[in-house]
Automatic annotation (TrEMBL):
Keywords in alphabetical order: Allosteric enzyme, Carbohydrate metabolism, Glycosyltransferase, Pyridoxal phosphate, Transferase
InterPro entries on file: Glycg_phsphrylas, Glyco_trans_35, Pyridoxal_P_attach_site
Modified residues (N6-(pyridoxal phosphate)lysine): 696
Enzyme Commission code(s) on record: 2.4.1.1
Catalytic class of the enzyme: transferase
Family (UniProt): Belongs to the glycogen phosphorylase family.
SUPFAM superfamilies: UDP-Glycosyltransferase/glycogen phosphorylase
Biological source species: Kipferlia bialata
One example GO MF annotation: glycogen phosphorylase activity
GO term, biological process aspect, one: glycogen catabolic process
Protein known as: Alpha-1,4 glucan phosphorylase
Reactions that this protein is recorded to catalyse: [(1->4)-alpha-D-glucosyl](n) + phosphate = [(1->4)-alpha-D-glucosyl](n-1) + alpha-D-glucose 1-phosphate
Amino acid sequence: EDKGSVDDTTKLWEILSEYQPRTVEAIQKQIVTHIEYTLARSRFTIDHHSAYMATAYSVRDRLLEYFNDTQQYFNEVFPKRVYYLSIEYLLGRTLANALTSLNISGVYRESLRELGFVLEDLYNQEQDAALGNGGLGRLAACYLDSAAALDLPLWGYGLRYNYGMFTQSIIEEKQSEFPDFWLSRGFPWEIERLDVVYAVNMYGFVRKATPAELEDGYKGKFVWEPDMEVLAVAYDLPIPGYKTNTTLNLRLWQSKPSHDFDLMSFNRGNYTAAIALRQECENITSVLYPDDSTPQGRELRLKQQYFFASASLQDIVRRYRKSGRSLLEFGQYNAIQINDTHPAVAIPELMRILLDEEGLPWGEAWAVCVQTFAYTNHTVLPEALETWPVPVMEKLLPRIMQIIFDINCTFLSCVRKRFPGDESRVERVSIIAEGHTQLVRMAHLGIVGSHAVNAVARLHGEIIQDRLFRDFYEMFPKRFTYVTNGVTPRRWLLECNPYLSHVITDTLGSEDWTKDIEQLCRLKDHATSRKLQQQWLMAKRLAKERLILFLKTTQLKDDPNPPTLDPNAMFVVHIKRIHEYKRQLMNILQVLLRYLRLKDYAELVTGTESIPHVVPRVIIFAGKAAPAYTRAKEIIQLIVSAARLINNDPVTRNSLVVFFVADYNVSKAEILIPAADISEHISTAGMEASGTSNMKFALNGANIIGTYDGANIEIAEEVGKEKLFMFGANAKEVEDVRAAYARGEAETIPTDLDRVISFIESGALLSKEERARGITGAGAYRAICDEMRSGTDYWLVAHDFQSYIKAQAQADRAFANPKAWTENSINLTGGMAHFSSDRSVKEYADRIWKVKPCPVPGQTGSIEEE
Ligand code: GL2
């Protein structure tokens, strides 16, 4: 390696050990320097966006000081390291988070004020980095934040998609998707590493190594002769630890064509074909799959997965090899967490590297793999359990397919030994599903190749042990565990809710709770204090005012007759991906019932401005539907058309307002969550593995209307279930009800639900355009109405409807008593310590990864990369 020609590095070190001073003058100088030299702007052309960019670059400079020191320190100490492999990271914005972590927001605010800018305005210039779909990707981002705060020697690996999660617009009351050009104005936080590049093989064939190759010291017995070689280029994103010297790395791979390959390929001289091939390579990291729950049976997705796994594994092995240690000890120094099955192909990829490139025998390589890998399952939805057709994998990844067959063969012979004669068991657990087309079951590969398999909440853990992976649990009971999800209190309270954070810090006497989350419990001692209750209410009010302002300047901007938004109303928020199992449908049907009842009531009390004795509600929905998921899109349309009808009704508009906020993302969540009085987490029990927004809401003192599902159950246990509005069939009952449906025992639908469905069927929700086109009746909602009337709907909307209405009524009554409501709200926040991602990550570190913190000492000054 080229170490440069400097013999005496004293001078270099001297300069590099001077860190950016944290003074107003130094910060201003740095920002202005970036304006002039990085952005080539003058004082005449500086706008908000360039001010944001220059500020971001100046903060990045500071992050890099910690980043370099951290990597240098890890290399010196060589602790056991963790690698978190996730095909999604829903990061959101970075500036506020970086400033908070470095503890320099105040001095930056002041520096910018003198330059003529308001820091908060600059925050809004930043595009969200939306390299994820939903909870799974956001969880990965929270875990990076916590790992850094806890000084764990962890790196994240992911993909640098050119287009992240699609942008959603509502056009003619329907969802339309547009590409997310998140990089178009530059992304100042990353470091492009053109020198960190790996070649990833695809297509071609596998042959045996020739005797001559073996004599030459060729390591493996097999040689993969690829037909395509794609380069993976690294982009590093510093992940600052909150108030610590540790700054971790999220390494994202971008695909790039390989020049060598152009020259050697059969396309030599065929310019057009060569360009097309180059394009194919670039396409691999072009777009994030906009689907939360169903694997696209498309080759490109598998290409993404393998590209990701191979580049990451090559990088990890190379780093370890540099230490000179034996590969047999690889698992003692490296833990690799596989975030769902998307990166599970990393298991055969590590086998390939160990066998073919490093020459380890099968048994030793396999022991290393199992010791290294751990797999997190995030869903029980059958359509989300990935499988790949064997012919597809064989064509794209011939050597990997061969290794998977070998893994399966060894595994199945163990099964046969343990359970002689039980061929149906063998069939059930096999990594290969037999059938017309053989399929590779990625979850089975993940389980067989890992020493730990974890669920993401307790109920989810029970379901995977008892049902989903029961056969595996019987074979490897010790492998199975659960780690209940958590969320970072930095982004999800300290940063997004400055109002409440002030009150909490003031009450507890210090800001220690932001790092030592157990401190929050002490809030409960003050829950009945008048003073705290008043401050608490005021904080909630400020968050609501901020949301109202946001709605007025976005959603309602062009509305000639906007509804009035009263901060005293109960704000009810239902935000998450749109999916039948999450039952946004049940909510909007309940809202329509509320509307009809308000109309009934108004007839009795005509002549008043607003309807007396009714708690006014502002109800907000937001979320994206996978583009190909028709029913989810119909549900969005139903919400939007119901909102149009309700918001324009002069009789009810002071008592009920409904919004569908378009293009839900992390930064919108940061505005919506602090403003909520209540949030909805009403999935059909047994379907939501955990849920994480439930934690964010309760952390911000919002109550939960929820089912006994996912982490709702544990939240209810922590805070006391009487403090929440829990309802509906539990997971066991859901199974029983479905069994009855399957026997043909349909239920009669509740009268209230019948009324709402009849209302929809009367054509009440049709738009002017639809009427003009002669559409009548339920229109676009025909299928939804029929399903509700069937009395056997799979998601149990009809079954749970009545208890849901009851829970809503309880919430109305409770909200009418502000004192008790506020006391309860304080107790909710006070009870949420357990759901900090610091706790989750600590559990992973202790129980699964077996790694210890490696705190980086005070700034040392170094120049080495990693
Ligand atoms: C999910 C689960 O659906 C959700 O319940 C869970 O909280 C998160 C994080 O563990 O994972 N699985 C999944 O594929 N997505 C999720 O949100 N997208």
